[in-house]
């Protein structure tokens, strides 16, 4: 049974980034482009059901365009600032209302680079997500650390990922 939500309850969205490749580091433009997929999770209390009433079905797979999704954009992108969900993508919904979506794409962010110690310099680039229409008091993003599975990362001879982490606010 869903709990009673009040206007004071923030909406929690979990975001985890899985790095697939570092496609470009542009020192002149101060940008970094990556290919990655995100795992975005939240609970929608309007999508709760009792599996016993529906032949023990405890999860379903639906098109993203058929459900409500939070508006999420990459804040410091240099690409067109649009919602990161692909409407033709799929979502898995569990009977407790938990929704999981895995958008995939190329993300380019501005990134201050200091190359004074080239070729031994280190760069730190952040990927900050936000909601266009909901202030932090309404939509709270929970960044989750995945440790970046090295089996997913495409190796590049020009640069190496030494440590991948997400710094939570």
UniProtKB/TrEMBL annotation:
Keywords: Ion channel, Ion transport, Membrane, Transport. GO terms for molecular function: extracellular ligand-gated monoatomic ion channel activity; transmembrane signaling receptor activity. PROSITE patterns: NEUROTR_ION_CHANNEL. Gene3D superfamilies: Neurotransmitter-gated ion-channel ligand-binding domain (2.70.170.10). It is a multi-pass membrane protein. GO terms for cellular component: membrane. Belongs to the ligand-gated ion channel (TC 1.A.9) family. Pfam families: Neur_chan_LBD (PF02931). Its main location: membrane. The keyword RNA-binding does not apply. This is Neurotransmitter-gated ion-channel ligand-binding domain-containing protein. The keyword Membrane applies. Residues 9-145 form the Neurotransmitter-gated ion-channel ligand-binding domain. It is found in: Membrane. It comes from the Eukaryota. It comes from Dreissena polymorpha. PANTHER family: NEUROTRANSMITTER GATED ION CHANNEL.
């Amino acid at each position: 049974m869903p709990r009673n939500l009040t206007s004071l309850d923030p909406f929690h969205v979990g975001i985890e980034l899985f790095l697939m490749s570092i496609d470009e580091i542009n020192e002149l433009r101060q940008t970094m482009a990556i290919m990655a997929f995100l795992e975005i999770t939240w609970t929608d209390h309007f999508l709760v059901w009792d599996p016993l009433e529906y032949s023990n079905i405890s999860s379903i797979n639906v098109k993203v365009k058929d459900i409500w999704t939070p508006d999420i954009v990459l804040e410091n992108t240099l690409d067109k600032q649009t919602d990161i969900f692909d409407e033709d993508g799929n979502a898995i919904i569990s009977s407790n209302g938990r929704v999981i979506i895995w958008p995939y794409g190329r993300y380019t962010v501005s990134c201050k680079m200091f190359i004074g110690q080239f070729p031994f310099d280190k760069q730190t680039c952040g990927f900050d997500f936000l909601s266009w229409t909901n202030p932090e008091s309404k939509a709270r993003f929970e960044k989750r650390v995945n440790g970046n599975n090295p089996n997913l990362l495409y190796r590049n001879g020009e640069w190496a990922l030494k440590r991948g982490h997400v710094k939570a606010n």
